[in-house]
Write a structure and sequence with these properties.
Blueprint: H1 2-29, H2 36-53, E1 62-66, H3 75-87, E2 92-96, H4 103-112, E3 116-117, H5 125-133, H6 137-140, E4 155-156, E5 163-164, E6 168-169, E7 176-177
Parallel strand pairs: 1-2, 2-3
Antiparallel strand pairs: 4-5, 6-7
Helix pairs in contact: 2-3, 3-4
The structure holds zinc ion (2 copies).
One zinc ion binds at residues 170, 172-173, 175, 184, 186-187, 189.
């Protein structure tokens, strides 16, 4: 018994050591991005609690005031939060104050029927917040909101968490991959033979696996 527990402790120690090393590597290699998926999930949990607390049904909205760039490694969690918000009919408004547009927030606002806005002048941020975002959903219909610049629909691959323009999609679970794999790493489906890269036309590159 004691030999077993010593063995277990040794294994645990080894695991903790390896985990620390991996975490260090990850921190060095990645750029800083805020935990958008976590905050969206928390907001949705809070809204669900309010929904279930009584017969009164408020019309909640989520406003994301975001400055840092997108973290592609959060793609799946963020998309899940967006679809959850869509199901609960909770619009996600986004006020982006960073340098480049945020593809995640553009998609979040587009899918949930919220407003995405990147203020041209940061000095006018309060004006945008009070006129665009503070107005209720009904009044918004009468407002002439700033025109959107379009939506960046690009996704991140599940294998390397990189933003990609074209990729492969599992026809069973809709997982996205940047390269052809023999098997889906998410659901385990075995894919058919891929055509050779040279033979396939670029338009056919979006291949799906066999169910
Ligand atoms: Zn990949
Ligand atoms: Zn799959």
């Amino acid at each position: 018994m004691s030999a077993l527990s010593i063995d277990l402790l040794e294994k645990l120690e080894e695991f903790v050591g390896r985990d620390e090393k991996l975490l260090k590597k990850e921190l060095e290699g990645s750029t800083a991005s805020s935990l958008l998926s976590g905050s969206l999930s928390m907001a949705l949990c809070y809204i669900q609690r309010v929904f279930r607390s009584g017969p009164l049904h408020p019309h909640p909205r989520i406003l994301c005031l975001h400055g840092s760039q997108d973290g592609p490694e959060q793609y799946v969690a963020i998309m899940n939060a967006i679809f959850s918000a869509q199901r609960s009919m909770v619009p996600i408004d986004s006020c982006f104050i960073g340098a480049q547009n945020s593809a995640f927030l553009q998609q979040a606002s587009y899918i949930t029927g919220g407003v995405y806005l990147k203020p041209q002048l940061l000095e006018g941020t309060f004006q945008y917040l009070s006129t665009v975002f503070a107005t209720d959903l009904h009044s918004r219909g009468f407002l002439q909101l700033p025109k959107s610049v379009g939506v960046d629909f690009r996704a991140s691959c599940f294998c390397h968490k990189k933003t990609i323009d074209m990729g492969y999609i599992c026809s069973v679970c809709l997982s996205i991959f940047c390269k052809h794999h023999k098997k889906c790493s998410t659901c385990g489906s075995v894919f058919g033979q891929a055509q050779s890269e040279a033979a396939s036309e670029p338009s056919k590159k979006r291949k799906t696996g066999d169910a």
